[in-house]
Amino acid sequence: MEFLWTIFESFAIVALVLVLGLGAAIVFEAFRRRFNHAHAEGHPILEDPNSLKQVPCPYIFDPAEKYISLIIPAFNEEHRLPGALDETLNYLQQRAAKEKSFSYEVVIVDDGSADGTKRVAFDFVKRYTVENVRVILLGRNHGKGEAIRKGMLHSRGELLLMLDADGATKVDDLEKLENQIHAVAKRELGDSPNSDSSLRIADIPIVAFGSRAHLEEKALASRKWYRNFLMKGFHLVVLLAAGPGIRDTQCGFKMFTRAAARKLFTNIRLKRWCFDVELVYLCKWFRIPIIEISVTWSEIPGSKVNPLSIPNMLWELGLITRARTDRPVGYDQAPFWDPKPILKAAD
Asked: Which of 13, 22, 65, 335 has the most neighbouring CB atoms within 10 Å?
């Protein structure tokens, strides 16, 4: 009986925190938006460490110059980043050697690290040249969402992939996302009687989410009951904030066509953990197709998520809920490509 009462108390406390957190977030956001309607933008300066000269910084509205860009946010990743970059660049080099049309860049966004992350990143630029590896320095810590946004806005790829600095997802799984994006693009073009044969993959807004949902049953069995309870509570709040359709919003392995990245990352507002949920919300708003695809994933020690992150997550989810009453930039403009709204899952 005492054990059941303890469980009931835990449920009540978590429910109260959810309600208070969302309520406070909504009130704060209503006040904040009276005085602030945009990100503070600073154009990044890219430097070639070999020549010490500045490199022209691209923008998401420029034409694509590479086939794929890989954006890696890094905050105090001095120890985990080298292994992930070695694996990533080995894969990219091998693929470029096999496919003449395959070109790539890796964009490392240092989110105000206090350790040797910057040094590690520039060592890779020196080894692989600034044409293939670039570093964006944010100066101070803004959050993972803001680091990825900056990387997306200043990348050159037709396809843009965000992936974590810990290497939790195998980089060659990008082919699963890539193939599904090409399949959806081909199908959508074929369905359109007035399709433009000159359109490239970069011009068609499509998003592919890597997913760990197929691993959930194993995770539930290995985690303690209160962690599973918090996870289920988070999923419930995500459902209320962004709606149904995606089982795993938080996997840090997502691919965007250039057109999708242009629309999403010029409108995204959240800067930290819950920006993934806002991406789902914006995809639905702009009718951008989302594909959810199972990927290989493993737990890597050194996670930045901790219990202190929970209040901030609730706060940001509240901002998304409040944002339902606002209209993102471009809501009243007919998109140049208007696919049927689809949410698909693929293995």
From this structure: 22
